[in-house]
Amino acid sequence: MGKMEYTLLDSGAGEKLERFGDYTLIRPCFQAIWSKSKDKMNLWDNADASFNRKKGLNWQGRDHLPQNWTIQINSVKMKLSTTDFGHIGIFPETIQLWESIQSQIKVAHAKQKQPLKFLNLFAYSGGATMAAAHAGAHCCHVDASKGMVQWARDNAELNGLSDHPIRWIVDDVNKFLQREIRRGVRYDGILLDPPSFGRGKSGELYKIEHAMLETLDNVKRVLSDDFSFVYLTSHTPGFTPTVLSNLLNKMGKNGNISSGEMLLSSIDTFESKVINKQSISNSKNKSKNHNETLNIPNGTWACLENR
User: Fold this and answer.
1) Closest by alpha carbon to 268, among 250, 289, 247, 254?
2) Per-residue pLDDT reduced to its tens digit, 270-288
3) pLDDT (tens digit per residue) in 186-241
4) In the chain, N or C: fewer CB atoms in 10 Å?
5) What is 145-207 written as a DSSP string?
């Protein structure tokens, strides 16, 4: 386990309290319907800044934060900055996913003795791209937002990966995939995190319930014959681990499918495990001490691994 400069400190009353490096932030969390921990109220009271959507989109204490700052998550460094929508450049629930991707890439390299080709779709600020590149994969990073792709490039520079083989693509995902199909380009590992709703580079509308099947069909067609993995993640309500597993199953590729919830966790949780490769329906929750930090479900994942 490397350096971990993120931790979930507490949650409750519709909010979450997180530490990102030197700064502690309060942001909305509709899943946290339980009460805040009474013994942690001092942490809540002394947070550096908070964001809420009660009357529009509002930051309080934003001027107490630098324009941007850097944190380290194991091997990956990430540039953070507040945005008007409350995002800061990282989705911490995906951290354990990065670790799993790195592990699978290293296993694949040991078998095939050549760099794995990794495709990151709807790639945001590139945490998974950085993780894959650090593991030795040759990467392709695709997002429809020019600003987010630049943010990811800044992260590559922070990580000493400016000269690493990474293709930076600003485009609608389905249009990009269709070009790759025509060109005969294939990938060994793919991660996709489609939004509930989004727009492509030229304003193309992406609604997950209509566009997902086309995207997965395109993903299937750019997979190499001896692919390593496909990860599908979602923050869309109703897209449970079982739904994501069924979508990967319908791709018609042989392999093992696992799934579960993505979790916001305390640093103690990160130190004790990586992503748990079992269906959430088979997991058992142990009773926690009332002073422990509760995990928060924040999205779902499913993985198809080649046999």
Assistant:
1) 289
2) 555 544 444 333 444 555 5
3) 999 999 999 875 655 656 667 777 788 999 999 999 999 999 999 999 999 999 99
4) C
5) -HHHHHHHHHHHHHTT-TTSSEEEEES-HHHHHHHHHHHT--BSEEEE---SEEE-TT--EEE
Q: Is 118 helix (H, G, I), strand (E, B) or coil?
A: strand
The CA–CA distances, whole Å, from 19 to 47, 154, 275, 280 equal 9, 22, 21, 27
**Residue 50: count of CB within 10 angstroms of its CB:** 19
Instruction: Calculate the alpha carbon distances from 35 to 11, 126, 167 in Å.
Output: 8, 34, 45
Matching CATH number, 92-305, of 3.40.50.300, 3.90.650.10, 3.40.50.150, 1.10.1740.10? 3.40.50.150
Give backbone dihedrals phi and psi of 222, rounded to 5 degrees, phi first. Answer: -105, 5
Per CATH, the number for 6-80 is: 2.60.40.1180
Q: Does the predicted TM-score (pTM) go above 0.85?
A: yes
Distances in Å between the Cα of 79 and the Cα atoms of 3, 86, 143, 259 are 15, 15, 17, 29
